[in-house]
Amino acid sequence: MRSVAVASSVVVLLAGLLPVENSRASAATATTPILATTVPGHPETDYMGSSVPRFERVGKAGRSAASMNAVAPDGLPGLDVSHYQNTVNWPAVAAKGAKFAYMKATESTTYRDPTFAANYAGSANAGLKRGAYHFGLPDKASGGDQARFFLANGGGWVGDGKTLPPVLDIEYNPYSTADWAGWCYNRTPEQVTAWLTDFVTTVHDAVGRWPVIYTTRGWWNHCTGSNTTIPANSPLWISPVASDAGGPPGMPAGWTAYTFYQWAKSGTFPGDQDVFAGTIAQLAAFAAGS
User: Fold this and answer.
1) Which residue has better confidence, 17 or 253?
2) Is 171 a catalytic residue?
3) Which position among 21, 80, 139, 145 bears the catalytic label?
4) Sorting pLDDT into bands at 50, 70 and 90, what band is 254?
5) Gene3D superfamilies, from UniProt (predicted)?
6) Annotation marks residue 80 as catalytic
7) pLDDT for res 66
8) Looking at residue 277, which CATH number applies to its domain?
9) Active site includes 44?
């Protein structure tokens, strides 16, 4: 898919933390091994993009599309949700023009979103293409173990024409303090890349689709050391940062275009506002396996 021009303005809200892409002078050197599975402390507060405002000063935090003075990018409109949105009226969402939806399914190897099943079925019954996402925590369990938990709890893919590829949400550690090592789960770029490779390969081997990666330029370039091997297979779902204001989002290393773009925190639909960078026919092909 080709990236589309974005006519939007992202307002810088948070101060006091420099964007990650500014420097790697304090890059993580920790070599703490991945421990046996441990339970995350607040998975119910983690969702797609929840850690981004804290670390990259993104103006969409807590803002409506109107208060951001944002204009929707070109592309097909859609949304991503979790239990935060409670019961979603999917026929109403479809009537407002949404063409696709993603919903949180799992986190680590211990958390299942309680609204996932209802959202997954309801969005498909309303005629939307739909898919599942996993909130990854590389310090809680291996990439392969988290992928298998995700697949066993709704994260799979079948060629039924309505199921979109699985998504890995990988972003700043929501349990970290404001230090470079913590942001990357106290892992070196090599360890992070190994974890990611384990996750995406496990998913691909099981269902025959490479998962989409949701991330930011800053997190990816810093925490993976600008890895380019994983982007060779996995499509990109980009989250904007402050420096993207007034233009299209900058690409992380390895990608030249995005497939999905989370452009606003709220707006026409429940949850985050997203676009797919293509046509109805391309979305159908993407769901079908192209």
Assistant:
1) 253
2) yes
3) 80
4) very high
5) Glycosidases
6) yes
7) 34
8) 3.20.20.80
9) no
